[in-house]
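Morning run. Coffee first, then this:
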Amino acid sequence: MSTLAQTTTPPASDPRDADTPLVSVVIPCLNEAENIESCVAAALEAIERMGVHGEVVVADNNSEDDSARLAEQAGARVVVERRRGYGSAYLAGFAASTGRYIVMADADLTYDFEEIPRFVAALQDGAEMAIGDRMDNIQPGAMPWLHRYVGNPILTGLLNLFFRTGISDAHCGMRAVRREVLSRLDLRTTGMEFASEMVIRASKENLRIAEFPIEYHPRGGESKLSSFRDGWRHLRFLLVHSPNHLFILPGAVLAGLGTLIVVFVGAGLDFFGRAWGVHALIGGALLMIVGTQVLALGLCAHAYGTYFMGEQDPWFDRMRARFRLEHGLLLGGLFSLVGVVLGGLIVATWVAHGFGSLADERLAVIAASLLIVGIQIFFSSFLLSILGLRRR
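And here it is:
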């Protein structure tokens, strides 16, 4: 739970109220005693030069130094968020702020607060979110080479691949957003992946996003980033919010490849210029079974996102409109029936030969695989239908 230091959270205000600040500068802070006064002063100066009514809100993330006291002395309103995390601090800061436009910037002196008017101007010109692009204006020593040439390009590239945002620097910490779109963004993450979540949610909500170059300066004080831990949290967040890339595509590739192997090897056809034995058939059956299961998980992930998290996916919506529970049950039942029939042929042959040794390994593998896949499809269809009960 967040609490205000020596002040109370202001009540929600009508955006049309003349007393409502035009801009709130929200600064997350964790043990930044040597930087926070300079950041608050620079933000207040930028607001004063704009000639508008504004405020600076410092979201102190339960600092162990004098950050909160120094920020308040410098003129900021301080909200203390005891739950550690970059996202937690920002969520508390957003809740405490009252401005029509919210400008975000870190408390480590890496961003130039004189850029605040540009971010506000972008929102006034019609953008619903504005993001800085640091990558061509990084001062010497400001960003480790691993972040500059590996981490940020890869994560930003994956984010654009998965969600088609078109953002050049998805993890820039200086950005701005209109207050009225916060409810649509429905931000929830508590860690560094908050930056990715904000861009992803903005893309899914089709917000108008402005991006322009800004400078990135060497930080003051000790960095709180953990390259591999925070990088993994970003990557994990991208994957779990993209079922198509995490489940559907890999599952389709595995199931398709496995099916081809089962068909070719089961029929005794040459594959890559040679005949393959039962071990290749077992491998193909394994791929087919695993691929089917991964596909089923992907569909369930889509259903959960649609029914419980308000996600929208045109492909899933089309599939949902076209196929019903009965279609899945029929397909699963058909696979299972073929598997049972093939298994019955094996048993009949075994009986006809006086209960001797069973030597038809290929047919047995195919029968078992079809039965397993049929059962997966059958019960996954029921699970999708159960998730669908949550439809609005």
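The longest strand covers residues 23-29. Good start to the day.
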